[in-house]
Amino acid sequence: MKHTMKGLLALLLMITAGCSSKSAMAPTDTADTYTPPEAPSGAVVSTPSGYGFDEFQTGPLGDVFYEFDSSELSADAEGQLKQNAAWMGANATAATLVEGHCDERGTSEYNIALGERRADNAKEYMVRLGVPATSIETMSYGEEKPFAPGHDESAWSKNRRAHFVLK
Amino acid sequence: MRYCKELFPGVFLILSLLLFPGQVQANGDEYIAIRKEGSGKIALVLSKPVASGAKESGWSERLDAETRSGLDFTGLFSLIPPPLNVAGPRGASSQAINFGALNSVGAEFYAGGAVVRKSGNVLLSMEVYDTLGGRPILRKTYTGKESDLRSISHAFCADLVELLTGRQSVFGSKLVFVSNRSGFKEIYMCDYDGHGMRQMTNSRSLALTPVLSPNGNYLAYTEYASGRPRLSIIDLAGGKRSSVARSGNSIDPGWRSNAEVATTLSFQGDQEIYLVRPDGTLARRVTNSRGIDLSPSFSPDGNKMAFVSSRTAVPQIFILDLQTGQTNRLTYNGNYNTQPSWSPQGDKIAYSSMEKNGEINIFTINTDGSSLRQLTSGTRQNESPSWSPGGDMIVFTSSRQGQKKLFVMNAAGGGQKRLLQMEGEQMQPSWSLKVK
Asked: In this structure, are residues B156 and B185 in contact, taking their beta carbons and an 8 Å threshold?
C-alpha cells in the first residue's frame, strides 16, 4: 500500500511538473491526504547536472542551502526538496539520511543544534509533500564536517546545507 | 602597619588555629579579609624542606619544585627568594625563624618544613607563618610514597591556598577536553596543568563536549560512533558505559548533581533539555519551547539552569528556575550568546558572544543580569569558558595563535596564558571540582 502511494506521488509530480503557478502547498501530515505540490517551472527529477549539485553531492537527491544562523527554507531550497520528494516517490524503497551542516562561524554546540533544525525542516517539507516520515532520518554534524575548506563566504555558503545521503 | 585596622579577626583566627588546627580551612575568609588592603599577589617566602641524607635531599628538591610551580600556576603568589639567614640551625622550628629578615624582604607569609623517610615513605612536615605576627597559621604533615611527591606537594598547596583565600584550589582538580590529535576528535583528561594526560575515548568518529560529574565519578559527553550524536556516560571507577537509548540526537550535556545530567534530546521532535540519570534512563523534561534549547549549566544548588535558546530568534542565554518553572532571559547584549557556565560561587555566569566581525569573546554577567564584563578582546575566537573549582580562574579555547588551544585567565580576564603543550587542536575544556 505504501509503495502504491509512492508510485502515485511520483506520477502526480510528473504530470504537474509543467505547471508554473506559485500557489502554496497544502501542509499535510500523511500520504493519505496528499495533495500534489506545485513543482517549480520546468523542473525535472534531479540529475547530477541539475540544480544544487556540486562536487560534494554524489547521489540522486540534491542538497539544500541556508543563510547564516538560519534554518528557513529559501525558494530555491523548496524547489530542490520538491524534486527530491518526487525522486523518493519514484523510488519507493529508498530511504535517506539528511545531515544538517553549518559553516565554521559561531560555536560548535549551537551549530549542531542549528544543523539538526536545518535537516528537520528539510525533512518536514518533504513529508508534507507526501514522502513517508519513516523513510527520512535526520542528524547533524554542525560545523564538524565542512564540505569546502575555505574561510570565506564562498566556502561558508557551501557548508550551510542539508546533505542528502541514500541509505 | 597596613594590617592594623583588621588585626583583631586575625588574632582570633590565629588563636582558633592553635586551638583547633583542623579548622584552618574554614577560617580562610578572615585571612583574605586581612590582606584586602594589600594590592595584588600574596608575598610568600617558600623554603626548601630541610632534609638530611641524599635520598631525602632529592625528595626535598622535587617537593620544592612541585610546590613552586603549583603555587605559581594559581597566579595568587609572588614567590620571594628566601633570605640567606631566614632559618637557624633548628630548621623549621618557630624560634629559629628570622622574621626580621622575612619582613625586610617584604614577605607576608613564610612556609618551610622538613622531609624525612619513615618506613620507606615520604613524610613532609610543613609550617606556615604570618611574618608580621610571627605566629603559625598552618602546621600539617603530609605522607605518601616516593612516587607521590607531586600529589604530596599539591596537598600542601591546596591547604595553603584554601587557608589564604577561603576558596577551593585547583590542586586535585581535573580538566576534560576535546583534541583532534589522533586525527579524530576524542576526549582527554588531565590534571589542572596538563599533567597525567589520558585519552578517554577511542570513538574514531567524533567525541565532543565532555563534562565530569561534581564528584568526578562520571564522564558525560556526546559521541557519534553510532552514526548520530548520542549522550554517553562513563562510570570512571568501573569503566561501564551507558548511553541514552532514544531515537533522535543528543547535544552538549551539563551535570545538575551526581545523580542527574541534563542534555538536549530531540526524540520527541523538537529539541528540548531533559534530565538523564547516569545509567542513561530519562528522569524528566525541563524545557518546553519551540526551537533550540541547548547547553545546560546549573547553579551550585542545582535549582536553576542557565541555557541557550533561540526562542527570541537569535541565540541568547536564559535562566530556568526548576522550582517555579519560570524562565527569564539573562543576556541582551549581542546577537549570538552561547556556552553559559555557572560559577561555583553561584553569583556569575561566563559565556561566549560572537560579534559581527566573527570574533568571539568571553564575558561574565551576574545571574541578575548586572555587572556585564568582557574578559577577552582582539584575539580571534575565545570560547567554551569553564570555571576553576574556586571560581577564581576560567579555562577556555582560543584561536589567537592560529589553531584552537586551551588557555586560562583569572576571573577578571587577567593573566591569560596557554595551558598545555599538545599536538593538534584542543577545545571544549571543562574544569571539574576536586576529584579524589
From this structure: no
For B186, what's the count of Cα atoms within 13 Å in the CB-facing half-sphere? 15
> Does the complex come out with an ipTM higher than 0.85?
yes
Q: Is residue A7 part of a domain?
A: yes
Q: Which residues of A touch B208 (CB under 8 A)?
A: 108-109, 112, 144
B174: contact with A, CB 8 A cutoff:
no
Ramachandran category for residue B321: left, alpha or beta (phi over 0 → left; psi -120 to 50 → alpha): beta
- Residue A126 distance to chain B (closest CA, Å): 15
Q: Where is the domain boundary, B134, B165, B196? A: B165
**What are the distances in angstroms from CA B311 to CA A66, B198, B316?**
19, 39, 8
Domain that includes residue B143, residue range: 4-165
Residue that the C-alpha cell 603543550 belongs to? B421
Chain A contact present for B272, CB below 8 A? no
Q: Which of residues 370-389 of B touch A (CB under 8 A)?
A: 383-384
Give how far Cα B208 sits from Cα of A53, B211, B222, Å.
Answer: 30, 10, 5
Residues B284 and B142 in one domain: no
Q: Kindly report, residue by residue over B232-286, the tens digit of the pLDDT.
A: 999 999 889 999 888 889 999 999 999 999 999 999 989 999 999 999 999 999 9
Tens-place pLDDT, residues A93-123 = 999 999 999 999 999 999 999 999 999 999 9
Minimal-distance CA residue of chain B relative to A123: B269
Q: Residues B304-319: pLDDT tens digits?
A: 999 999 999 999 999 9
Residue B181 and residue B146 in one domain: no
Domain count, chain B: 2
Within 10 Å of residue B41's Cβ, how many Cβ atoms?
13
Answer yes or no: do B44 and B191 share one domain. Answer: no
Same domain flag for B237 and B159 = no
B320 touches chain A (CB under 8 A): no
Number of Cβ pairs closer than 8 Å across A and B? 68
Same domain, B179 and B157: no
What is the count of structural domains for chain A?
1
pLDDT at position B84? 84
Helix (H) or strand (E) holding B302: none
Q: Are residues B411 and B308 in the same domain?
A: yes
User: Using a CB-CB distance cutoff of 8 angstroms, which residues of chain B are in contact with residue A117?
Assistant: 271, 291-292
Residue A160 to residue A136: CA distance in whole angstroms: 19
Query: Can you give the CATH number for the domain in which B68 is found?
Result: 3.40.50.10070
**Candidates A105, A110, A139; nearest CB to B229:** A139
Which grid cell is A69? 544562523
Domain that holds residue A80: 2-18+60-166
- For chain A, the C-alpha Rg in angstroms (whole number) is 15
Give the domain CATH number at A145.
Answer: 3.30.1330.60
Q: Do A110 and B308 touch (CB under 8 A)?
A: yes
pTM of the model: 0.85
